[in-house]
Fold this protein.
Amino acid sequence: MPHHATAGSFLGGSDTLWFVLLTIAAVAGVAWSLSQKLSLLLAGRKDVELGRWNERLRGVLVFFLGQRRMFLEPLPGIMHALIFWGFLVFSIRSVSMVVEGLTRGWELPFLHTPVGHAYLLTKDVFAVLVLIGIAIATWRRLVTRPERLEYSADAWVILGLISALMVSDVVADGARIGGGAPGPWAWTPVSAVVGGWFAGTSVGALRTLYAAAWWVHLGALYVFANYLPYSKHFHVYTSLPNVLLRPLGEPGRLAKMDLENIEEASALGAGKVTDLTWKQLLDLYTCTECGRCTVVCPTTITKKPLIPRNLTISLRDHLNASAGEILRAPGEARGTPTRELAGDVIDPEVVWACTTCRWCEESCPLFISYVDRIVEMRRHLVLEKADFPAEAEPAFRGMEVNGNPWQLSGETRGDWAKGLGVPLASEGGDFEVLFWVGCAGSYDDAGKRTSQALVKLLQAAGVRLAMLGAEERCTGDAARRLGNEYLFQVLAAANVETLNSRGVKKIVTNCPHCFNTLAHEYPDFAGNYKVVHGTQFVAELVASGRLKLTAELRRDLTYHDPCYLGRTNREYDAPRRILEAIPGLALKEAPLSREKAMCCGAGGGRMWLEEKLGDRINQTRVRQLQESGANDVAVACPFCAVMVGNAQKELGIEGAQTVDVITLAAQALGEDSSQPTADGRRPKVDS
Ligand code: SF4
Ligand code: SF4
């Protein structure tokens, strides 16, 4: 058996004691820092939904190890993946160097096997790939300087330490190779090149060089490990658990507050940072400050004070600064910070600005949530402080008294359907699907036209439908997202009672907000229905041949994806399938469409608030849509219709129209495909 001189023998052994002491200090430092952070996390609320572990582990493979979301931007994605994967590869090498220092003469037991050879080759190649990654990072920070990056010394410290780890590794192996130490060096081509540079250097000098590189490597490792918890690179520790424990529920579903069992001492919503859940606190520690959330946020784009990354950083810094108040002496109860979140730490304008569009969350490579955190702060302001924008008050009152935020009579809710022959569910007849009209579909003029159009389409296809009429109330979507959980729960309970008493199994609705709430939030109130959006229903009818769109509509238009249909409920195709089925209609896509579509500004209850700061979101969105080359805009949400239509008028875009996809489909319905209604009449639609 050939004798291999071990790395340890090349290292020498006079300073083992110092290394042992240094290692103990480094490990103790990391353990203390992590225990402090863990104690802070555990000060958060406990109600976090877990389970579905197979799915969670798959997510770790895809999003943590596979870095999938990082590749949404190719160059930074490659840069990060090279550094990250190299880091994983080098973790084995670094640990082996630590053990080598503690037990001189030790080396990886499999080093002289094919597995070891493969590892050495991988490690050597990755030393170069990581340095390429660092070169790309340096280039971006010094030359291209993307707007979304924060330029802090922190990044340079980390890049410097990672470079030191890589360079010291190949220099150490190069010194061993140059010094004639036997080993499987055929598998370390990069180190072999470095070793060649040392030809002619004395073995003694190369032993000293090896020892120096070894100390630099482990010194950098220990500094790195201890520095991370105090830097934005804490995500090196937290990203694995954050991806593993990411929310897996429906993205549009907000957690139900247990209003019946509120303990006297506990706050409603998030008043203090410790009112957030431990997972929301873990989010704060996981943010890399990459700014991907920020460049897509409609409020940031329109120069409002809500900048998602800054919100997270402010909360994280506040959590750290509150450690003294939260973590009392051992044995004492955990404390609560004195500072309120909204007002003391976060400008309330930030809290109210969010449209809950969730683009920030979809962009974040580490699954950091925003909407739940922001709504928790709104809940505290509304339920505990009665402190909310004045414009929300009439909308709240309207929902409470009249069952709609327009404050119009609930008795007239079904008036839009007069003469259309739509039976009421309360009449007890048999129906296949309930048309949930929604407030906009009942009271807003354009919304009413869309409701009438859907009725025309469903009747033409012979679908047996019914509606609730005056029995229907607002779903409470806007109330909930504006923080008025109490009002939402009252509305939800009343609606579920009505729907269940009418034997409703399947619902179709034109409003994506109603769709989201009925499908994903009402199950928490014993309301379980199959819910489809109007565009999904109609697209199916067209695909199956039950509806024929034969009338030609000669026009160019673009389509605006509503956040609550697209990003939140991942329905991008159904409205497009309808538009593409209409003869003569040319759909022109805007660059920011589908997953990249920006909000119109109405979500999160913002429909009912004034937009006093920055540019107007709806106007910014319409300008984006105009990049398609079309001025007319098709929508699939009554609130988008209002926002986009208003912006077209405000911007003075001559002749531009906003029209719902359902209305267009009804216009394209050829007379031959229109079936008479049950009572023999053909519906008349004002579209
Ligand atoms: S949900 Fe939308 S508006 Fe709110 S912070 Fe995220 S990107 Fe901005
Ligand atoms: S929240 Fe996510 S996307 Fe935003 S800065 Fe932090 S890591 Fe980046």
Remarks:
- The two ends are 89 Å apart (CA to CA).
- The beta strands are 433-436, 465-467, 506-509, 530-533, 555-559, 585-587, 633-635, 658-660.
